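Chapter summary example.
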Amino acid sequence: MIDHFNLPVSDLARSRVFYERVLAPLGVPFLLQDGNAVGFGRSTWGFGIVAAPAPLPQLHVAFVAGSRAEVDRFYDVALAAGASPNGSPGVRSHYDAAYYAAFVLDPDGHNVEAVCRLAPVS
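The structure predicted for these 122 residues follows.
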């Protein structure tokens, strides 16, 4: 449905380092910088950060994880990169029986999530 999404940030350099680290466990690398915008994606720009003046709106973005282990790794890396915890990894059955997610607040207070909707392999 959405081709790409750009998130406003107050400090482009700080946020670029943050997102390079936290998107790595999800297999989403840095692709390019275009002026005041930085793009990430597996083959094309799917997610970006754009320098914007304060105050910034607080937004929520959820990234697809390929496994529950990727969600766990995302959360650990995000906290190590300076994110604030906003929901540790776990099943959110009120969304879906297989909804496994973790939530952090990025340096600008955006709610960033990694989610895996695959049931665990037994």
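To summarize the output: Residues 5-116 form a domain with the 2,3-Dihydroxybiphenyl 1,2-Dioxygenase; domain 1 fold (CATH 3.10.180.10).
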